[in-house]
Structure formats: structure tokens, C-alpha cells
Amino acid sequence: MFDIKWIRDNPEKFDAKLAARGLPPQSAELIALDEARRAHVTKLQEAQARRNAASKEIGAAKAAKDEAKANALMAEVAALKDQLAQGEAAERDLDAKLRDALSVIPNLPLDDVPLGKDEKDNVEVRKVGEPPKLAGINKPLQHFEIGERLGLMDFATAAKISGARFVVLKGALARLERAIGAFMLDLHTTEFGYTENVVPLLVRDNAFYGTAQLPKFEDDLFFTDPRPSDFEDRTMKLVADTVRQTLGRGDRSFSRAEVDALVDKFAKNAASAFMMANHWATTDYEETSPGATRISASRFGLIPTAEVSLTNFVREEILDEAKLPMRLTAQTPCFRSEAGAAGKDTRGMIRQHQFTKVELVSITTPEESLAEHERMTACAEEVLKRLGLPFRTLLLCTGDMGFASQKTYDIEVWLPGENTYREISSCSVCGDFQARRMNARYKPKGAKETRFVHTLNGSGLAVGRTLVAVLENYQQADGSVVVPEVLRPYMGGLAKIEKAA
User: Fold this and answer.
1) Is residue 457 marked as binding?
2) Is 480 a known ligand-binding residue?
3) What is the pTM of this model?
């Protein structure tokens, strides 16, 4: 999400950065939406000022016993109230249009991000380690061949239960996956200063909105179906009905626009008080305009990464600068529909609907975010160094960056079975892009005003792909797999994984 004031002041720069991402200019359209909204707000303020002045004049007219003038003023005030109710509804509509337009625009790349169209234009930053010489192996096996020959990787059973893009790991491979995750968490928490967390896997739409999965990438996520019997829906209906019934009593009549405005206002206040609704309650409980993005309050979604849960820790918070940086980690299952991956990596564990990942998230100040990005990337790289796995680090070009990213490093691990490098981590600095969507701020020491935090996220690492890399890089000619030394304490001292009896 962007600061519309910055776009007004820097339209050429904004459009140039979008062009670097291969997008058309959009500043003129956004500025036009903002100007319409601001002009409308000015008219509302003028109407409010006139209503207040006319209300005072009523008392003066009555004191002067000028009933005709008093009646005329009362009629004017009543008309202004109706006009204001309609105007406030129109203001919400204009706000929603601007917010929706801003919400689907990706973050702007930093100046040092290379220009490019796709992954072919990414720039290699460094390469660590050499592909292993696998003694006695002429053609290295891919991980799924190794796992199936060991009798410990079962795609058929997983497909019977859940369909394609799932796996059942058994015995020593199940333990190996657990060992890899535990090793990563121990490294990040004991040596790198990250705090481990156990987080919700099911989150509300507003959490997805905060980290920018919504509204643009809804098709990539798994959602529960909203249920009309949910507590929120029943509560909001009760609130709305009560307000309408109350307004229907008494001598004074109310216009439909005025009733709807009061219901809307009361319902939102009730939602805030009784259900601890957050900053996005405007869209949580009511679609504010025809065609506006609807952020549901009654459905859950499965997280595609723990970034969603961890980053939303600071949503609607004002942090003390002394507590920054916050460094958070969690190991979770991740769930992705892989909507755009038809035909890609159909065999094996590389691209699955469910996989395990250790996530790293940092919350910091604008001044420290770039240094924190380098640090986070180094933490992810260290996992591969300790495991003895060859890798390379790439700086992604403008055409290959993620939606919320200002700058991204991808770490790719060597897979002998594929004879290529494959992504195993992506570390991104997002600037204040997510913070603005979440209203996440901090108060600098000695300052009166708050500032938006900067957020960063990275894989530290994808556990399943790390298991894939271990199998392929440590495969032996007899079909066994050597367990890397750093993992053996987590494997009960087991040094080699052999075919199940």
C-alpha cells in the first residue's frame, strides 16, 4: 500500500518504478481518485459547518420570537442532515475506490534492483560450495526415486487420501524432516537472536490483506466457506436490526440514507467493542461500495507461509523503538493451491499443496531495514553451510520480484538429480508496504510523531526442499543416504538412512 500524498508529489517517479516492473503508468488515475475524494470531503465539511451555524441561529430566532425564521432554519438543518448522511456514504464509496485501486499495485523496487523481465535476468551474487562428486554414481537419482527405493516416501498413499501434490514420509525420512526443522529453529534462536513462536495456521482475511496476499492472490490460497451461523454474522444482524427498530420509534422520521448511515456507524462501533475488530472493520463487515473488495470476517484461510501470522503480530500496534528490531521465527505447515503451476514439478516434493517451512520475520526501522535484509539472508545461507549443501544466492530482477517486495534475494540449492540449482529460500525487504496495510507503527525516541515500521521476511529454510537436497547430495551408490553430521544429534545418532526392512 502506498501513501497517496507521496504519489501526488512524485507521479513521474512512481510511474517509472511501475514501468520497471513492466506495468503501465497509474499515477494519473490514482491522483484523480484522490482529488475527487478530497473535493467531496471539502463539500462535506462546508455542509457540516453550515449545519452547525444554522443550529445556533435557530436558538437566536426563537429568542427573537421569529417563528418563521426558526422553522425555515429547522427545515434547512433537517435537509442538511439528510444531505450529510448521503454525503458520508458517498465518502466511504470514494475511500473504498481509492483503497482498492492502491491495494492491487505491487511494491516499488529499490534503485539497486536490476531491471529485467523474468528469472533469466536475475543476477548471481555469490556461489558457495561445489557440486559433490558422488562416488560410484554415474547418474544421480532424483529425491523421489531415492525416497521410493528406500520405501520411506509414499506418493500413492498420499494421493489416495488427498490427491496430487501431497506426500507421506515414513520412518527415518519422517524423522529426518523433523530433525531438519528442529536444527533450523535451534540455529536461528540460539545463535541468530530470533524468537520462536507457535502461530495460528488459520487466519482471517484481514491478516492476508496486511501481508498483501489479498486481494490480488486469492486464487493461490485455501479458504474455509463462510457460515451464516457464525457468531460475527449473527451479532452484526442483531445490531443492525436493533438500530433500525430503535430509529423507527418516536415522532421524528428518518430518511433511508440516514438510517443506513447510522446503522453502518453503530454496527462498526459495536463490532469494535464486542469483537475487537481491527482497523479494517470498514470492509470486514460490510461491502462499502458496489464492486469494492470484500474482506470477509467469517471465513478462515490456511496460511501459505508463517510470514502472514508473524508479520501480523504488529498490526494496529505502536511499538517502542527500543524494542526494534523484532526478530521472529516459526516452523509451520504451509498451504498453497499452486493455481498457476499446472504441469510444473508434478513428481516429487518440490511443489506441493502442503509443506513445512521455517520462516524468519523482522520488524525494524527504515534506517536499519537494508542491513537487516543482508543479515537475514546470511542467516538463511548459514543453514546450508552447516548442512554442507552447495548453493548460490541471486538478486532478483524487477520482473521476478514478489508483489510486496522492494528487493529480494533468492537462495538456490544444488540438486544433483536434476543437475541444477533450485530455490530453497527467498528473503525480501518490503519497506513500509505491509506496515501501511496493517497500520503498524513505532515511536522514535524523543519524537512526537509515529512512523511506519519496515517489515522483512524470508525462508530459513523450506524444510521439505532441504530434505530433498540432503537426499540428493548425500546419496550413496548402495541406495542409502548419509545423514549430515549436524543432524545426527536430532536423529538419535543415526549416521545413515537405509532401505526399510
Assistant:
1) yes
2) no
3) 0.83
